[in-house]
Amino acid sequence: MDHDRISQEENNRVDEDLDLVKSFREMFSFLRLPRFDYMRERPESVLMLHLMFIIIFIGIITLTTPILVSAGVMDMDNSVSNLMQEQSKWLFISLAVVLAPLMEELIFRLHLRYPLLGLWLIFTGVTFGIISFFLDIYSCPFLWTMTVVAFLAAAIIYLSREIIAQPMTLFYNRRFGFIFYITVLIFAFVHIFNYTDLSNWIVAPLLVLPQLLISLFLGYVRVRNNVYMSMYFHGLYNLIPTLMFLLFS
Asked: What is the pTM of this model?
């Protein structure tokens, strides 16, 4: 009897883990009110995340393709297509599927669990904006200046971590919804610069709608699971259109 009861409990647990509706309900609950420690002790299963990703990916393609075509995206000069023409296919795939997800997740979503990193990003981001007014962002002095600023900011925050760690964690707990959605918007915004000749800025929000939508899912995965899973799904999201781009271009 005990064996049957344990087996039944295990089966119920498996059925609960494979409840797709329940998993989406939990994700939407988080997106309505993002929380710093949302279900951290019970991460979503890898299988369920793949099922959710497939549905979300199909939904994004179905929703955004007519919008992007109407906005004239096919006629715009895109730095991604230029990169593909200039580099080998394998290098292009490596950049789009491995390097870009790795760097973007570290920059945009790693801080969602590490408030001190968020402080470092704010400091270096503001400094980047100020210095870029005075120096060419592609020049050597600019790059060296920003490298020094980044290391100095990291050193100062590390040395004063005992003083600022608790206030920063408290701030993240209280204002996590604001922090989460600001991160989503900034992530989407930077992808506007994929378009090298964007004369009609009024359509810019439409052009980054796919990045805006997938960023919601990636942010949820990062908070509930970990940054490695968000890197993986970010790479998977880039892989599919990259392969299609290479096959049909």
From this structure: 0.83
